[in-house]
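In this section we walk through a basic example: taking a raw amino acid sequence and producing a predicted 3D structure, encoded as discrete structure tokens. The instruction is simple. Fold the sequence below.
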Amino acid sequence: MQLTNYTFFNSKNLLYIKPVKGLRGYSLSYRFQFNGQEKDDEVSGAGNTMTATFGEYDSRLGRRFNRDPKPNASLSVYSCFANNPIFYNDVDGDTVGINLFSKKSNKKEYKAAVALLAKLDGKNDGVFVVYGHGHNKGVEYADKNDNVQAVFDAKGFDIVLTEKSNEWRDDRKEKKKMTLILYTCNADAKNYTHVYKDGTKRNFPVKVTYAEKLAEYLTNVTLTAANGNVLFGFDSQGNAINWGVRNTLLGNGRMATFGKLRVKSENKDGNK
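The resulting token sequence is shown next.
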């Protein structure tokens, strides 16, 4: 147990933690901070950055790194909580979900993605969440016959989403501003290591990641993609959970956001 005191938009540290007298099990290793967001101390020091579903939040500025997927004309697209973090919170939702998994070939992943996407309200406000298998060269998807196929170019990916989602098709046709949250492994990893069942390992380096190709091709789309392994599934109670992005041997393990200018996030070793 712990007592957490927050100071909003603090230039030194958002989170001050004090133990509660008489309670056991107090620990400084608690993963979550303000608004239930998971802390990411590797980006800019302890307590300064938190990872949310649709981007990352800088507690020193009270600003998000990526543009708000539901912008308000009266506020900056980088503002959070309408600049009032005590009165407002940031609730996930207002997105269209797209499941690229095959029902027969990816049963577990397909069911988990269905359960996670069911938590969204399904309204189309220009935000699209996509689950599927992938790597730094492309993604897999289930075709009309539920057979697993792969696509390695950005145009082909756009066509796949157009076939999967009428909302994606219409928004692209009307050239609307859109946000794409891509939950496929290593889409933005310059290099990652795959460990096979027999224990052998192989590195997969690329000069241009698949996420970078998508960001270049998909005009008017703000893309957020993983540069590590995306972990999601069911917990011991049967609840569908997205645990986030895990470090690979040669990947950072976080979500990277692209717009007109790429939002770079570096770890303490200076690796992009």
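Looking at the output, two observations stand out. The CA atoms of residues 93 and 120 lie 5 Å apart. The first helix runs from residue 41 to 44. In the next section we compare this with other chains.
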